[in-house]
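ok, trying the design again with the full structure, not the truncated one.
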């Protein structure tokens, strides 16, 4: 799972509308990284993007609209979960992607998450993005079950994925610690050991559904 907050989509051919959108969203990312969500303004984005202010207001209406589109752009990235042949390898590769993204642009990640607390549309968009990303990565757990790496009982894939990736965000975003090159593998290994012991198995009534 590439970091959901790394919202720079692959460039695709397009007309003027696509170019303007790309310029504006690049400007939003830069403004968030430099000034935080408090300093994000329609005028600042228009100036940085080299686009007329009226164009920005007409298409995005307000700062909330800009934030929603930046988050939506993440869903346009052509990305597939890693497939290394083992659950530990897959989760390690996933964590390495996340760490790289957070190290490259930590201020942007923090600013975008903070902005979601001030914009309900942005909060909804961000929640949907995370939901989609975790759903996309559930294939890692499905493959692990098929390979016999996890118990035959149903495994809560999302809980496992959250447990595996959370240490990266905790250390780099919340605590602002220096990146530890060993953390991606260590967090992955811990999650795999817990999953192998049945920590994320769904039991009882839920397992019968």
């Amino acid at each position: 799972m590439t970091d959901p907050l790394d919202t720079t989509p692959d460039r695709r051919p397009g007309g003027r509308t696509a170019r303007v959108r790309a310029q504006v969203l690049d400007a939003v990312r830069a403004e968030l990284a430099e000034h935080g969500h408090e300093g994000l303004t329609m005028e600042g984005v228009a100036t940085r993007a080299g686009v007329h202010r009226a164009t920005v207001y007409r298409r995005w209406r307000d700062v909330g609209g800009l934030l929603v589109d930046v988050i939506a752009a993440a869903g346009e990235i052509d990305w597939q979960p890693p497939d290394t042949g083992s659950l530990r390898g897959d989760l390690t590769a996933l964590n390495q992607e996340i760490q790289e993204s957070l190290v490259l642009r930590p201020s942007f990640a923090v600013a975008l998450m903070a902005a979601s607390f001030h914009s309900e549309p942005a909060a909804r968009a961000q929640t949907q993005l995370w939901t989609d990303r975790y759903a996309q990565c559930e294939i890692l757990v499905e493959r692990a079950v098929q390979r016999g790496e996890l118990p035959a009982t149903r495994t809560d894939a999302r809980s496992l994925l959250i447990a595996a990736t959370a240490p990266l965000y905790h250390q780099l975003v919340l605590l602002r610690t220096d990146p530890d090159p060993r953390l991606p593998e260590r967090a992955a290994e811990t999650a795999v050991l817990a999953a192998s012991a049945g920590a994320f198995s769904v039991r009882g009534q839920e397992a019968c559904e």
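Keeping the full-length input from now on. Residues 120-147 form the longest helix (28 residues).
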